[in-house]
Amino acid sequence: MEIKKIVIDSFFPENIASEIDRLARDELYSPIWQTIGWNLMLQKARYAEKWIFIWAYQDGKLLNYAIIEKRKVWPWMHWNFIIGWPLNEIRIEEIELELNKIWIEEKAVFTQIESLGKINHRTFKAWKFKKFIEKHTALISLIEDEEKILSGMKQKWRYNIKVAQKNDITVEKVSPDKQNIDIFYNLLTETKTRGDFSVNSRDYFYDFCAYLERNRIWGLYFAKRDWEVLASGIFVFYWKMAIYYYWASTSDNEKRKFMPAYLLQWNMIMEAKKNWCEIFDFLGIADPEDKDSPLAGVTDFKLKLTNHVHVWPESHIAVHSKFKYMLLSAKNKLKEYLK
What we know:
Elements: E1 2-7, H1 14-24, H2 36-44, E2 50-58, E3 61-74, E4 77-83, H3 92-106, E5 108-114, E6 125-126, E7 136-141, H4 146-151, H5 155-166, E8 170-174, H6 178-195, H7 202-215, E9 220-225, E10 228-238, E11 241-249, H8 253-256, H9 260-274, E12 279-281, H10 296-302, E13 309-311, E14 316-319, H11 322-338
Parallel strand pairs: 4-5, 11-12
Antiparallel strand pairs: 1-2, 2-3, 3-4, 5-14, 6-14, 7-12, 7-13, 8-9, 9-10, 10-11
């Protein structure tokens, strides 16, 4: 058994990328964030400074791997980040030891891991520097039939689907061209104003939707009435999991009463089911114990579709430079205090 490491770039070996897909296809919580294509897309969008691939293989077969993002945490400090890893516990100790070597080469202050499954980490401790993903999410099982899925939704939600249908809302997949991305981004800006959250750049969405379209893992959808786009969403279908990744809708209350977002969601749930996905992930809701969460509004919307709340495992961290980590922690506390 060997452990190898290479930098991820456009020349990454296609045979290894295919082996990653082979490992991922059997996972229920599909780790799209741990695929080469996804990380090449993020590279184009300049999401991080560097990507590194570590893998364990034996007799020419990929056993386990990790994709590490090197991110800037302060002008002169970096950290290593891993999301959706590991797939399994095969050779995990050796891979973790390799992760702890990389920080020296990359001068990382710490390494933080966000796992999708419960793993017995050997050298990482349950802790976090910052919350990167919401630990609570809402899921729908797509193995159930249509009636069972509908019965799991609140009555008001089912009624709103019918309201949208009666008001001639139509849902369609659109090409990720500049015009359509601009329409989505303008709606997203409206949504941001209502919800008080940050958004990625317009260029990021060009790259993101082009990647989805190119790889046929879904894309951009509009909900329209009389040719006007009232709601929009970007969806990812990767093997067994469908992800409701981004959403946007009009702030005009006269148009919101046509319930376009409800029909959009229902159509996408059915589309995911048609394409053999087994689970639909709403990608983050507020902690039920946090009554003041800025996600309270969107959480209320999502939990009208399902009562299945799933909690991801705790974040894990390995601190490589205690002094620098203490500086960063102090900076964060000061920032919170001054808010």
